Amino acid sequence: MVVDRVRNVRITAVMKAYISYNANECIRLQNAGWSPTGDYVSSLVDEKGNFMVLIPAEMLLGVFEDFKKILLNVRKELVIIRGNNDINAVLSAADDDKSKVKVVLAKVYWRVPHISVADVTRLKLLKYVESSNQLDIGFRSWELHEYPLLQTTTNHTWAIKNVAQVETPRYVIVGIAHLLDEIRYELNGMVVDRVRNVRITAVMKAYISYNANECIRLQNAGWSPTGDYVSSLVDEKGNFMVLIPAEMLLGVFEDFKKILLNVRKELVIIRGNNDINAVLSAADDDKSKVKVVLAKVYWRVPHISVADVTRLKLLKYVESSNQLDIGFRSWELH
């Protein structure tokens, strides 16, 4: 039985890493091949082209990040499906050289620690297994939604999907906040939270809320109080990728941490008329010539899988039509 699954691991893992790991964790994960700036990865490969990395499973699946209990008398399998090519796993000085590189995985080990118990405890555990009690595995799963081509209009609604499972939104990647004129969150077509003039509201909230460590964590979201880090987000060709936690943009994502069941969620984004406020330039008169193109926008919505017994209880709760109270602090700009 499939407990947890992640598709398109290359994108999902990178998005999760950028918004989750602080400076110390990035140092710890260098041996896993993770380096936000890419300056350490080359040292993992020796002169003959051999490499060895140790990747914590919590970097790839939510179940390993959250579920810390013991599993007894079950067969565990980790199924890995390799990509069609290795282009996204290679760092090269010239992009046209990547297609010629082939990565060979000689050996793959899965290290599964186990716990040895005394005979008395072993007998108790065997009795528990014989009782056939149901095992609840609670964790936050990761789900990737990709919008293939962003519309050129300034107003676009993206309906992610209709869900019958327990879900709670956490992160939204919408480019740089200064590109947006309005963002709102809707449940079943009803506006729950809305922020207008996102560029000013988000910056004001950031200046009064984030400490030094949080500012470092949010550098990959394009946030830098001094502005000295933002230029490093754009490569030589003018491409950029930022990962913005939804709590930076809407109060509902900052305060509301409960589970949402059987509702249709929509995140409506209205882009600004121009990109002047999203551009850092040495001369202000050059900003009007710059146009920012959003090629792809991802909204990462983790969900929680529950046991059948719990699912029945939740469905009964839905059928009871009890009112859902969503308490949070909304942001309003005057």
Q: What's the average pLDDT?
A: 76
Uncertain ranges = 168-175
List the secondary-structure elements in sequence, H or E.
Answer: HHHHEEEEEHHHEEEEH
Q: Which structural class best describes the helix and strand composition?
A: alpha+beta
Bin the strand percentage: 5-15%
Distance between the termini: 53 Å
| DSSP helix fraction | 10-25%
Q: Radius of gyration over alpha carbons?
A: 23 Å
Overall tally of structural domains: 2
What's the overall geometry? globular
Largest sheet properties: 4 strands, antiparallel
Which strand order does the major sheet show?
2-7-4-5
The number of helices is 8
Q: Please report the total strand number as a whole number.
A: 9
Task: Give your account of this protein's structure.
This protein has 334 residues and is an alpha+beta fold. The chain has 2 domains: 9-130, no CATH class; 146-319, no CATH class. It contains 8 helices and 9 strands. The protein has helices spanning 9-20, 23-28, 62-66, 119-130, 198-209, 212-217, 251-255, 308-319, and strands at 146-147, 155-162, 166-167, 180-187, 190-196, 260-261, 264-271, 297-298, 303-304. It has a 4-stranded antiparallel β-sheet with strand order 2-7-4-5. Strands 6-3-9 form a 3-stranded antiparallel β-sheet, with no helix packed on it. The chain has a two-stranded antiparallel ribbon with strand order 1-8. A hairpin with a 2-residue loop joins strand 4 and strand 5 (190-196). The protein starts with 8 loop residues before the first helix and ends in a 15-residue tail after the last helix. The model is unreliable at 168-175 (pLDDT under 50).
